[in-house]
Design goal:
Shape of chain A: globular
Number of strands of chain A: 20
Strand content of chain A: 15-25%
Keywords (chain B): Cell membrane, Membrane, Transmembrane, Transmembrane helix
Structural class of chain A: alpha/beta
Bound molecules: adenosine-5'-triphosphate, magnesium ion
CATH topology of the largest domain in chain A: Rossmann fold
Structural class of chain B: mainly alpha
Distance between the termini of chain B: 12 Å
GO molecular function (chain B): transmembrane transporter activity
Strand content of chain B: under 5%
Transmembrane segments (chain B): 16-37, 63-85, 92-108, 114-137, 149-169, 189-211, 239-257, 277-303, 315-334
Oligomer: heterodimer
InterPro entries (chain B): ABC_transp_permease
Largest sheet of chain A: 6 strands, mixed
Strand order of the largest sheet of chain A: 6-7-8-3-9-10
Number of helices of chain B: 13
Radius of gyration of chain B: 22 Å
Largest interface: A-B, 45 and 31 residues
Protein name (chain B): ABC transporter permease
Chain lengths: 529, 351
């Protein structure tokens, strides 16, 4: 199979210390799916234990069992040497196990302080807002997670929301912290801060289980690594014995073929001379009147991939929304085939062949509680065979869903189940395929590889280059400079809503882009176009 | 071979039906037990209930009369639940529909063929007007509809009583706190069952087709499940909310029209008879599906009808209410249990 180092035995524990958590033969079945099969695992005090595996390998499910959300169908959970039954997340947290989920579970309308104190035994009865906020501030200082106690969750960035989630768990005296893809939504700086805090947490004799698809960060921070494939554990390795390539191979069970994505095969569509979509001096403001995009001018040409680099929160969201008709500019024009669009309307943009992989798939790209067929019809419900003459044909919607799932290589046991039951990465794959179907002319892809395993990332980037070769214009928003340099033809850099420069990817280097991302202008760096 | 029980995310309609039937039977057995313990003869009571509901022609007629408004108010609450809104005000819109219909019936004279459609039109319009303010408040200011629609129920009930004893009071006989008998009526179809019954059936069927098989229905579903995804797909969420809520008001009002013009033939205080509130129960039983409204309304009609029969046998109203609650309680337990199914896991699947 692989030439992975011998599995298991990392340095022995000091005698007498049982592992914080020991899983023995855990299995979990869903109808038509074996999510976990006979998984045994131990997590020791003072370690950061990474859990790797492909999309749908069963990582989230296993952790949901450890935190009492699901009951295992077989197997045992042993905490500090004692077998335990965890009937609910409340019981798990009482036993010192806290989890931050792949998709946050905060109450959006509540403040930070209210969320921290929600459903907590230590919350003083009849506490005033002031008391709750003071307690939150104290907790925030004690654990080194800066939060604003009076801010409403809905107004916070992903990184800030995550800090609240972690603080919520730590406040309840967790000794084992489980993080499900915590860095997927973080900026590199936020991720660094998180890791620093995790190291402090570990130094106090606590343990962390970290689920991630980013092998580099796993290599950086973890002490041991366990790998799941198809619900089974393949092995546990000491990180020191691992290399990213070996991890990738063990996860997928085969070698991942890399191909040169920027090279065009013979017969690929050339870059179109006339832009398909253009922005002219576009400025947008948020509800507080602060400019989120400033005077952005750009052109999208068929047959070309325009990468958008920048630290998250510098206008990427607004840019993708303007390009897909979701947000009307406060000043400036959107030109569709050279014609200014008077009132942008997302349905009109979709019909014009503009696909959109949104940055937050659960919040804006899917209706999690509806079934898979309904979700896959979202872009084509108004045309035959599903729509047409005001009708809606459920059969045709299901056929479409089947087609999309096949193309995305996602196995679906039951098309009538709510789409939220799919693994995070599989949801992302379906959204990507759904949007690629309608993207006849333009595809706006915001962080399309977020939450995907390495194999799937290569596949999705391959989709983008295939589209490019068919003459579609592509906007690829990403935080991963390497990814951008690999596939993009030109790279635009956003800083505080301004498009700092658009540079040719063939001649660009990481350093220049890094400087521009930090707000240094082109004049200082030279060599831009 | 190990067998374990697990909760499935979705349930097939047949399974649900079987569990519900089981739940109803369990509730009836429990009731029988309690009646027997309190010294009554359950067999006698059961026989009486059966005879005066499904067991005789008069019983069936009564059932159909109960079912007609329940189907419509149940549909009214179901349609808003599709977009994630709870119309607690079907009771008020029922009154508004009744007032509108009675107003035309009392004061516009002409052939029934002309007056009846006019009554319907006016009643429906009144029902839509009654939900208009909660609708706009919800769509444009995100004001929670549960409170606004609920409060308007009391206003509508008082307005009806006022009209019935005040300005529209029957001055000729003067005895009842009601208006005079309307000169026109929905023609009878079968005994006392009037054409409102098949019309209500048709309305529910059309509504079910609209919600499940049209683009509009799909857009409503998406808007309800995730408004942000709806906007992403270019669906005008606000317009859909307004349309759905007005439609809901119209359906509840239609129940009021049919009650005034087909069953009661006059406007009187309390004419809504809690049909609006029972519509909520029907909608909950129907679990968001319009076609399910039909059996749910039938069950509710049966419960209400039996309740009246039992009250004639010196069972107190609260006992009847407790039995009603028990039936609904058992059904919701059955609904939940229907999700669980034993799954066999062979050794090959879990080595
Ligand atoms: N509630 C559920 N009902 C049915 N199937 C489920 C449910 N939850 C998870 N599954 C299935 O179990 C499998 C494992 O899912 P899980 O979410 O654990 O994967 P994962 O390893 O976390 O993947 P990802 O990296 O994509 O997040 C998937 O096939 C998923 O569809
Ligand atoms: Mg997961």
């Amino acid at each position: 199979m692989t030439d992975a180092p011998s599995s298991g035995e990392a340095p022995p524990l000091p005698p007498g210390t049982p592992p914080i958590l020991q899983l023995m033969g855990i299995s979990k079945y869903f109808p038509g799916v074996i999510a976990n099969a006979d998984v045994s695992l131990d997590v020791r005090p003072g370690e950061i234990h990474a859990l790797l595996g492909e999309n749908g390998a069963g990582k989230s499910t296993l952790m949901n069992i450890v935190t009492g959300i699901y009951q295992p169908d077989a197997g045992e959970i042993v905490l500090d040497g004692y077998a335990q039954r965890l009937a609910s997340p409340q019981e798990a947290i009482r036993a010192g196990i806290g989890m931050v989920h792949q998709h946050f579970k905060l109450v959006q309308a509540f403040t930070v302080a209210e969320n921290i104190h929600l459903g907590w035994r230590d919350t003083p009865p009849r506490a005033s807002t002031r008391v709750l906020e003071a307690r939150t501030r104290a907790l925030s200082e004690r654990f080194g997670f800066a939060v604003r106690p009076d801010a409403r969750i809905a107004d916070l960035s992903a990184g800030e929301q995550q800090r609240v989630e972690i603080l919520r768990v730590l406040a309840r005296q967790a000794r084992l912290l489980i993080l499900d893809e915590p860095t997927a939504v973080l900026t590199p700086t936020e991720a660094r801060d998180l890791f620093r805090a995790l190291q402090v947490f570990r130094a106090q004799g606590n343990a962390v289980i970290l689920i991630s698809h980013k092998l580099d960060e796993v290599m950086d921070i973890s002490d041991r690594i366990s790998i799941l494939r198809g619900g089974r554990k393949i092995g546990t390795f000491a990180t020191a014995d691992c290399t990213p390539a070996m991890l990738a191979r063990t996860m997928v069970g085969r070698d991942i073929v890399r191909r040169d994505l920027r090279a065009r095969p013979p017969g690929a569509a050339p870059v179109a001379a006339r832009p398909a979509l253009g922005l002219r001096h576009v400025t947008t403001r948020d509800e507080r009147g602060i400019e989120t995009l400033r005077d952005v001018t750009l052109d999208l040409h068929g047959g070309e991939i325009l990468g958008i680099a920048g630290v998250a929160g510098n206008g990427q969201r607004e840019l993708t929304q303007v390009l897909t008709g979701l947000l009307a500019p406060d000043a400036g024009d959107i030109l569709l085939d050279g014609v200014p669009v008077a009132t942008p309307d997302p349905a009109h943009f979709a019909r014009a062949g503009i696909g959109h992989i949104p940055e937050d798939r659960l919040r804006s790209g899917l209706a999690p509680s509806l079934d898979i067929a309904d979700n896959m019809a979202l872009r084509e419900y108004d045309r035959p065979p599903i729509g047409g003459r005001g009708g809606y044909a459920p059969r045709a919607a299901q056929a479409l869903a089947r087609q999309i799932a096949d193309a995305a290589a996602v196995r679906i046991p039951d098309y009538a189940m709510p789409i939220r039951n799919l693994s995070g990465g599989n949801q992302q794959r379906l959204v990507a395929r759904r949007e690629i179907r309608i993207a006849d002319r333009i595809l706006v892809a915001a962080y399309p590889s977020r939450g995907l395993d390495i194999g799937a990332i290569a596949t999705v980037l391959g989709y983008l280059t295939d589209l490019r070769d068919r003459g579609v214009a592509i906007v690829l928003v990403s935080e991963d400079l390497e990814e951008l340099l690999n596939v993009a033809d030109r790279i635009g850099i956003l800083f505080q809503g301004r498009l700092m420069a658009t540079i040719d990817a063939a001649t660009a280097d990481m350093e220049t882009i890094g400087l521009l991302m930090g707000g240094r202008t082109a004049a200082h760096t030279g060599g831009t176009t | 071979m190990a067998r374990i029980v697990q909760r499935l995310p979705s349930v097939s309609p047949t399974r649900l039906l079987i569990w519900r039937a089981g739940a109803v039977i369990a509730a009836l057995l429990l009731t029988t037990l309690f009646l027997a313990l309190s010294g009554r003869d359950p067999a006698l009571l059961a026989e009486l209930v059966v005879r005066s509901t499904v067991g005789s022609r008069f019983g069936l007629e009564d059932l159909a009369l109960f079912m007609t408004p329940l189907m419509l108010t149940g549909a009214a609450v179901t349609v808003t639940s599709r977009i994630g809104i709870w119309n607690i005000g079907a009771e008020g819109q029922f009154y508004a529909g009744a007032i509108g219909a009675a107003g035309i019936g009392l004061f516009v004279h002409g052939p029934a063929l002309l007056v009846l459609p006019l009554m319907t039109f006016c009643g429906v319009l009144c029902g839509m007007a009654w939900i208009l303010v909660p609708t706009l408040a919800r769509a444009y200011a995100s004001v929670n509809e549960i409170i606004t629609t609920l409060l308007l129920n009391f206003v509508a009930a008082l307005l009806t009583s006022y009209l019935a004893v005040g300005p529209w009071h029957d001055r000729v006989t003067g005895a009842l706190a009601s208006t005079a008998r309307l000169p026109v009526a929905i023609p009878d179809l079968w005994g006392v069952v009037h054409w409102g019954f098949p019309l209500a059936l048709a309305v529910v069927a059309i509504l079910a087709a609209t919600l499940d098989r049209t683009r509009w229905g799909y857009e409503v579903r998406i808007s309800g499940a995730n408004p942000e995804a709806a906007r992403y797909a270019g669906i005008p969420v606000r317009a859909r909310i307004v349309a759905v809520m007005l439609l809901s008001g119209a359906l509840a009002a239609l129940a009021g029209v049919s009650e005034v013009a087909g069953t009661v033939h006059r406007l009187q205080g309390g004419i809504a008879n809690n049909f609006g509130y029972f519509g909520i129960v029907v909608a909950v039983l129907a679990r968001g599906s319009c076609l399910n409204v039909l059996p749910a309304a039938l069950l509710m009609a049966f419960i209400l009808d039996s309740g009246i029969v039992l009250q004639t046998q010196q069972l107190t109203a609260s006992t009847v209410l407790a039995i009603t609650g028990l039936v609904l309680f058992m059904i919701s337990i059955g609904d939940e249990l229907a999700h669980y199914r034993p799954v066999s896991t062979s050794k090959e699947a879990a080595p």
